[in-house]
Amino acid sequence: MNMRWLVVPLLLPLLVAAAQPEAHPDLPPAAAVAAMLANHPDVLASKSGIRYEETNRTRLAAGSHEFSLQVGAARRRNDQSRQLNEWDVALERPLRLPGKARLDEKLGRQGVEQARLSLGDAIHETARGLLRSWFSWLKARVQADEWGKQVNLLRQQSEVAARRVRAGDAPRLEQTLAEASMAQAEATAVQSRLRESVATAELKQNYPDIPLPGKPVLAVPVPVNQSYDYWREHILQHNHELAVARAEVQRRQTLIARSQADELPDPTVGIRHASEAGGSDKITGLYLSIPLPGQARTASTEGARAQMDMAADREAALLRRLNAEISALHAGAAAAYEGWQKAQVAAQAMERNADLIARAYALGEAGLTDTLNARRLAVDGKLAAVIAQLDAVESRYRLMLDAHQLWVLDEPNPSVAAE
Question: Would the pTM count as exceeding 0.85?
Answer without folding.
Answer: no
